Amino acid sequence: KLLLTFVVCRLISTVGLAIDNYGAGHPVRRIDQGVFNGELSYDTSDIEKVSVDFGLLNEAKPLGVLHPGSTNDIASLLKTANINGFSVSARGHGHSINGQAHATNGVVIEMSGSKGNQFRSNLGSLPALGYENTFLLGGRNSKSNDSKRIPYVDVWGGELWIDVLKWTLGFGLSPKSWTDYLYLSVGGTLSNAGISGQAFNHGPQISNVFELDVVTGKGELVTCSKKKNSELFNGVLGGLGQFGIITRARIALEPAPQRVRWIRVLYSNFSTFTNDQEYLISLHGKPSSEKFDYVEGFVIVDEGLINNWRSSFFSPKNPVKISSINGSDGGVLYCLEITRNYDDSTANSIDQEIEALLEKLDFIPSSVFTTDLPYVDFLDRVHKAELKLRSKGLWEVPHPWLNLLVPKSRIADFDKGVFKGILGNKTSGPILIYPMNKNKWDDQSSVVTPNEDIFYLVGLLRSALDSGEETQKLDYLKDQNRQILKFCDESGIRVKRYLPGYKTQDEWKAHFGDRWGQFLKRKNEFDPMRILATGQHIFKPSF
Ligand code: FAD
């Protein structure tokens, strides 16, 4: 039946026919959505490309790959899938870890790099009035005045953030909230949350969207926002691709700064480090001259030089040896990473403002590392590391990443048990740690976060190697992830996984907790046949 579907789709795409019946005894109901503007491909190279992702941990082959030429192509495919019973997954840039964009024996829609020029970005602005109670003006209680307008950009769901940035910079504008790495698609990060060091201030990327066009699992194209079709809008944001495919996103912008002052300081004491991080994120409501624009941090547990792929910053100009830092005791160090954006109009005051902020912090005095660079270079910093790793053959390796949202009240226990315990001086990649303010997250969206006002992202971004030490091998790292989760479970640290890769519905129910009922209701409404994003393993298809 499925094969027939493909034959039919192929016929439609190439000949443009609407077909009532195909083949002896195999009725295929009329498909009248017209022809594909794009291409439904069965090429082995296309199939192989979408069968794996950045994680390189598992493989799942679809039967076909749609390169959409328009939103209608996506709607046609989804309607066909409902009638004939096959799964469909949007694939942004394939940077998931656990096969989340796979569609075993179904069709993968390649959202990024789509053909056709109907996906051009479009700029506009909206009056601020009316958005006082949303996150788009910086929180629920913020005030707007009648004349203020908020600029936005409309982009295709498969657009990469790096391209959105480059395009908007041409108009002196930029999105506000980012991920650390920009070669990710708009639809892909909005299906999770999209977080980085700006999230304490602006919220995650999903808190910075005005409006979406979504093709629901039923194949209906719906425009939605906080005010219109809000159930779909809320559901899709952080919705793990379960309710529809984002074809257009209207993203809030702000005037783009020209340059960034990027500072790293070290701590040997965990609570001093987290106190300072929490102090810095408490400044979110202050004027921009009185806070940093970005607050992140990472943990250094390896001996020797600080040289993982996120810290090239320190070397070769300023190599740092952990043993040379007073008080580190050869153990764990913590690095606070902060930035201030500026331009010509603020260049004169930035040194004093940064000095005043640094004076309030309690880092190791001799450990201040500063650099200054164009805004785009800062935002695109991880890509530089990517190019280096690629040149050494170290990018396309398995990535058993573990990302956790840890409640503030238990972060010290996590430090003791994991950074100073389970990891045992070996990391195999950067370990990010930074706090965020829960009040910048919309509890109507599909994302679940810990039940505290402040929670930390802890990202163990490991790369596995076949050769070398045992502690770098895939099985070792996967086992360590299991130990970390077991430790949290047994110690009652109620973490939520970010970018989770569960395999059973029971695990998903536990993940969503009391939000599961809402998630299920949305699924029944927008994708009743459960054809979408089956690679997430949340629902089994109904065919
Ligand atoms: P894909 O992996 O292609 O898809 C992810 C999920 O979204 C799938 O279920 C897919 O079906 C669905 N989906 C994709 N496009 C659409 C669409 N248009 N409509 C509906 N559903 C869709 N995340 C952060 O938050 N912050 C970071 O700093 C960060 N850094 C990263 C750095 C690297 C090097 C990597 C590999 C990942 C990083 N991530 C980060 C994680 C990343 O945000 C997610 O893995 C994201 O899903 C990747 O986007 P993608 O476009 O590759 O999505």
From TrEMBL:
Residues 1-18 form the signal peptide. Coiled coil: none annotated. It catalyses: N(6)-dimethylallyladenine + A + H2O = 3-methyl-2-butenal + adenine + AH2. Its EC number is 1.5.99.12. GO terms for molecular function: cytokinin dehydrogenase activity; FAD binding. One of its GO terms (biological process) is cytokinin metabolic process. It is an enzyme of class 1 (oxidoreductase). Belongs to the oxygen-dependent FAD-linked oxidoreductase family. Its cofactor is FAD. InterPro entries: Cytok_DH_C_sf (IPR016170), Cytokinin_DH_FAD/cytokin-bd (IPR015345), FAD-bd_PCMH (IPR016166), FAD-bd_PCMH-like_sf (IPR036318), FAD-bd_PCMH_sub1 (IPR016167), FAD-bd_PCMH_sub2 (IPR016169), FAD-linked_Oxase-like_C (IPR016164), FAD-linked_Oxidoreductases_BP (IPR050432). It comes from the Eukaryota. Keywords: FAD, Flavoprotein, Oxidoreductase, Signal. It holds the Pfam family Cytokin-bind. Residues 58-256 form the FAD-binding PCMH-type domain. This is cytokinin dehydrogenase.
